[in-house]
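[job 0412] stage=complex_fold ligand=adenosine monophosphate status=START
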Amino acid sequence: MKTVDNFNFKDKKALIRVDFNVPLDGDLNVTDTSRIEAAKPTIIKVLEDGGSAILMSHLGRPKGQVNPDMSLKHITSKVADIIGVTVKFAEDCVGSTAEEAVSNLKSGEVLLLENLRFHAAEEKGDKEFAAQLAKLGDVYVNDAFGTAHRAHASTTIVAESFSEDKCFGYLLAKEIESIDKVMQTGEKPVTAILGGSKVSSKITIIENILDKVDHLIIGGGMTYTFIKAQGGKVGNSICEDDKQELALNILKQAKEKGVEVHIPVDVLAADDFSNDANTKVVPVNEIPDGWEGLDAGPKTLENFKEVILKSKTILWNGPIGVFELPTFAKGTIAIGNFIDEATSKGAFSLVGGGDSVAAVKQFGFEDKVSYVSTGGGAMLESLEGKTLPGIAAIL
Ligand code: AMP
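[job 0412] stage=complex_fold status=DONE, emitting structure tokens
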């Protein structure tokens, strides 16, 4: 895997696809700088070699139209603060404006191009547009995992114009390495913890992951489809009746493949989907009518703890309960604590894909797990076993 470490950027212009799709408040100030900070090491490497960095990104969903509220101009000073050098801005990402800004760029300088998605050609993966982008740099660097599952001009097609001079930035390399550690090279036992609301949204991941893991922990709303399929009473719990057969089939496949599946045995049930509901712990297959399971119960958490603590490689995707409501967040927090403990004993732990990342950040586990993925959709597609076009374009 070629990374920026394989290049000396002295007197070279690095065209870097970053993910600066950051949240802005009503006054267009950046409210979360983590994506800019994540790209910093790659940019610094280029500058310290004596090269210059041309940064390209999208921001929001302008759908091919110029939209002043989504201009990357608003984040230029924040990028400068974080990188620690002056950042120039080009009012367009292609054409004479961009080309002139690039030709005036000296070693050690950074140029931020205007929002790629102001051009419809970006998301279409247009070859002509990609060729115009390619003209701007000597080396193409992709450091945007969040868009690596899209075959857009700046994430994939542009790489065709660089036969050898293309590589991954540190952030993207780290994402690829972390996913490989779980899916291919991880030390056994490997455990996947899959939560979230629905079987239907996780089915491709489950099917792919059965070939990679020793243990599969199933939690969250998915639980009830499995329990009902096995003849249990789930009350008002979230349940996909049309996925019951699929659930039984997953259990059968897991058995054939020697994967141990761990499903909750008890749950914290509530008589309403609200933080102030009446609650009680009940066996997972005896949830009374009018009640619904919203978090894992104590026996379940004991079982899960045992599995997690003996694991050497852990993947966590999806909360184990309705963590947005504090009454039902305890299971998700407990899972975070078990993973923290396993990690401090030497396990490798990867958290990724949507809501589990939000939970990990909210409850302060970010620095306690080995790696938190930055790309929601890209991460999910990787777990589904797909080769991401942005990654394939460089390999
Ligand atoms: P997903 O996007 O599929 O990972 O699902 C995340 C959502 O699942 C979160 O918003 C959780 O509140 C929800 N969730 C987790 N457990 C349950 C449950 N037992 N009942 C209903 N929703 C749940």
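The domain at 4-172 is CATH 3.40.50.1260 (Rossmann fold).
[job 0412] exit 0
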